[in-house]
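Worked example 3. Consider a protein that binds flavin-adenine dinucleotide.
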Amino acid sequence: MTDKQSAISLWDISAEEKKVDNPMDGDIQAEVAIVGGGFTGLSTALHLGEKGIEAHVLEAETIGHGGSGRNAGLLNAGVWLPPQDVRKELGEEPGKRLVQTLGEAPEYVFSLIEKHQIRCEATRHGTIHAAHAPKGFEDLRRRWEEWQRLGAPVDLLDRDQAAEKIGTKVFHGGLLDHRAGTINPMGYVRGLARAATAAGAKLHTGVRVTKLNREGSGADGGWRLETTRGTVTAKSVILGTNAYSDELWPGLKDTFTIIHYFQLATEPMGDRVEHILKERQGLWDTGSIMFSLRRDAFGRLIIGSMGRVHGGESGLSKRWAARRLRHLFPDLGEVTFEKAWHGQIAMTPDHIPRIHKLAEGLYTPIGYNGRGIAPGTIFGRAMAELLTGGSEDDLPLPITEPKKATSAPIMSRLYDAAFTANQVFKSL
Ligand SMILES: Cc1cc2nc3c(=O)[nH]c(=O)nc-3n(C[C@H](O)[C@H](O)[C@H](O)COP(=O)(O)OP(=O)(O)OC[C@H]3O[C@@H](n4cnc5c(N)ncnc54)[C@H](O)[C@@H]3O)c2cc1C
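Given these inputs, the predicted complex is written out as structure tokens:
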């Protein structure tokens, strides 16, 4: 078990699935090399393994070090935007395909959890998108109408129904999506790693890929990857580096804006929290500076919002969390926080994820806009299908060229400042 101080998140401490520690030993020749040991990379490796291809996953730190081991664990359907806006952005047919594929995606994730017996505290009671204000409720109604039209099992909750499920009257209603649920995300990503290994994939941790060189051309061409531990040659490469992309592929990390999201977990609180989200849904709200709340399997409350952790377990972020919980649940009393952490999210200008073809035999699914558990799993499966004879036309998203998001670094800094100011303001 990881000690509390060095753990990257609560999930790093509480996940039942074992940590993978597997240094690279000598140069490697592979059919497929995958950079990044998160949902995307490991799902690609698992699905390639099931098709008889031994992929090598190269992870700079540890499995789940990126967003996959730090997230809120809300296993949601669809993407950030409502379905009708996805179709507007992508065009009717591609939009429909993405909405349908990702609408069914939680079901697929639950099926993997079941098939590989992944120990990740999975619950299947849905998630609640809660209205922070009357205009938030109108947004939810619009989403609900469209999901209803598409036949999705979603309920619009009025104020009293939402209060009954959440345990506070603060929200103006909610959208309950029965397709969704919650997981321990580190448990899930480590479970994917275990399943991928069993399917024949080779995982290497603590190895950073520093250079990608194309060698040869056409069908005989391939890639030579320079790493901090040796060289890897591979016919094809998948980058699963997402919001944690470094300088490996020049310009890739300028295609999105990085925002941070922080969370704090209380100590297990037993009966004191039984009335909060009593059916065990996870929750996030419609506020422009989003807020999330859930319980874990051990009776902890996990509360989060946009921005970084300031002051560890005892500073500004802790004051923000304590005040927010007091506002929501005045009878809760004093709470003690056990762990605080944050992670990076890759936001694209239109809030739609991307699958880029960076060069021949080099692809990257990227820019999940804070919704990556199901998309990472599905896009990984799609990469495996593509590399085993599938067509680019059958991907969940049309392939695109990377495009610089104008002022991304400036926007990242501006958001950071705004989110910190929000924490200060809401802690007073
Ligand atoms: C705080 C937070 C809360 C979130 N909440 C949710 C949620 O509730 N629900 C949801 O669906 N999504 C959520 N997300 C989004 C989700 O976690 C991400 O979209 C998802 O984890 C992305 O997975 P990935 O495998 O593509 O990338 P990551 O998990 O970020 O993995 C990228 C990996 O690449 C490695 N890497 C980078 N460069 C190199 C290199 N050169 N060589 C080797 N390795 C490299 C990194 O070390 C990292 O481990 C949240 C994200 C954050 C940060």
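Take a moment to read the result before moving on. Residues 10-126+179-410 form a domain with the FAD/NAD(P)-binding domain fold (CATH 3.50.50.60). The chain has a mean pLDDT of 96.
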